[in-house]
Design a protein that fits this description.
two-stranded antiparallel ribbon; disordered N terminus; globular; 17% strand; eight-stranded antiparallel sheet; 398 residues
Length: 398
């Protein structure tokens, strides 16, 4: 098979509804390129695609995991944790997963719904009486589903400056009383971090446990995410971390950056740390293999499209094959070649992260980078193209 590459097309879309080493590659068996219908044929070619483009990008480090059904079929580290060293990224090297944290938070919320500790339509104001907005009536109507779907009616990225200054989520919540709204709740999608993380305090109120402890007890520990955490101290004190790097577009070189504390004050939105081994176990949860962590019903709920984002999400709409995009609860949903794809990306402290689930084919992938790079954009749509080519080839040979 000749290696093919994705041509990214800019799509003009509208809603159809109203509303870069660990040397070992973990696969089931060695690639058998003579058997075109074998899954290892697909993995072999995707591995070559990723390794080639990662090397060209010169990004310091990366890690990839792919899960099919309930099995990790590919898991590998690429490059180094820190430039100018030989300290290779392995499958237990920890990265910040940035906004993939939102999906983890949604899974925790689903767990609480399963245990009757939380409701999707639960009123925020009745649970947190300290919460308010300039529009008192709208503040009194806001629900949990509005927080998780970015449909609270506030202007996008409200209070990002306070997050970057390290202001606590408790103090940020008190400041919301000074903020007006730009639309009624449930009507407009405006991406949030501070408002999304109000869910932390609702969860803590409902259980009398810290958000950090809830993540450990309800998600990380039972899933076997042994390297995962949600604090700055945890990643700062870890001796196996892919450190962040920035890229200078003039010198065309990477440089080492410092780990910073920003967004650990809103852990629900961007403060989770994890290795690619952790993310492999997490993908099993997202593929519905761990009903002890989240039921199928609650998983369906968090993946259910709530608001159309086709007119705003130009990033995801650059993917060839995507006709419409939506936001569910902690997750983006893409209409891709006749099927729904669950997706999210992340960007914090120079880390770039992406996660994709193809429910129809029961396959999922997560990619983590410790620096910005041009390969970050095409890595997911190329995965879909490669997998679709593999599936089409199987059909032709049957």
């Amino acid at each position: 098979m000749k290696c093919f590459y994705v041509i990214l097309l800019v799509l003009v879309v509208s809603c159809n509804t109203s509303k870069p080493t660990e040397k070992a590659v973990v696969i089931n068996k060695e690639p058998e390129t003579s058997k075109k219908d074998s899954l290892s044929f697909f993995l072999s070619h995707y591995d070559k695609f990723f390794a080639t483009n990662f090397n060209v990008s010169e990004c310091p480090g990366a890690a990839v995991v792919i899960v099919k059904d309930s099995t990790v079929i590919y898991k590998k580290g690429f490059g180094v944790k820190e430039i100018h060293t030989q300290d290779s990224v392995d499958t237990n090297t920890v990265f910040r997963i940035a906004s993939l944290s939102k999906g983890v938070t949604a899974v925790l919320a689903g767990n609480m719904v399963d245990q009757n500790e939380l409701q999707w339509n639960q009123n925020i104001k009745k649970t947190l009486d300290v919460f308010d907005l300039k529009d008192r009536k709208q503040a009194s109507r806001l629900q949990v589903n509005h927080l998780l779907s970015h449909t609270t009616g506030l202007y996008k990225y409200t209070y990002s400056k306070l997050i970057n200054r390290g202001v606590s989520i408790d103090q940020i919540i008190k400041n919301f009383r000074n903020k007006g709204v730009v639309s009624r709740e449930g009507v407009e999608y405006e991406y949030q971090n501070a408002m999304f993380s109000v869910i932390e305090k609702i969860m803590e109120h409902q259980t009398e446990k810290s958000f950090e402890m809830l993540l450990k007890e309800r998600v990380f520990n039972p899933a076997g995410m042994n390297d995962a955490s949600s604090t700055f101290a945890a990643i700062k004190n870890n001796d196996n971390v892919a450190l962040p790097h920035s890229y200078n577009h003039y010198s065309k070189k990477y440089r080492l950056d410092d780990l910073h504390k920003a967004y650990y004050n809103v852990s629900a939105a961007g403060g989770v740390n994890a290795s690619i081994s952790d993310m492999g176990e997490y993908l099993k949860v997202l593929l519905g293999n761990r009903p002890d962590i989240i039921s199928k019903e609650s998983l369906d709920d968090i993946f259910n499209p709530i608001i159309c984002t086709s007119d705003k999400d130009t990033y995801v709409n650059l993917w060839d094959g995507v006709t419409d995009s939506y936001y569910a609860m902690g997750w983006r949903i893409l209409d891709y070649r006749g099927r729904r794809i669950v997706y999210h990306g992340g960007n914090v402290n120079q880390y770039k992260t992406q996660l994709l689930i193809d429910p129809d084919n029961n396959i999922a992938i997560c990619v983590l980078f410790n620096g910005p790079n041009p390969f970050n954009g095409p890595v997911m749509p190329t995965f879909l193209n490669y997998y679709d080519f593999y599936m089409d080839m199987k059909k032709r040979e049957q």
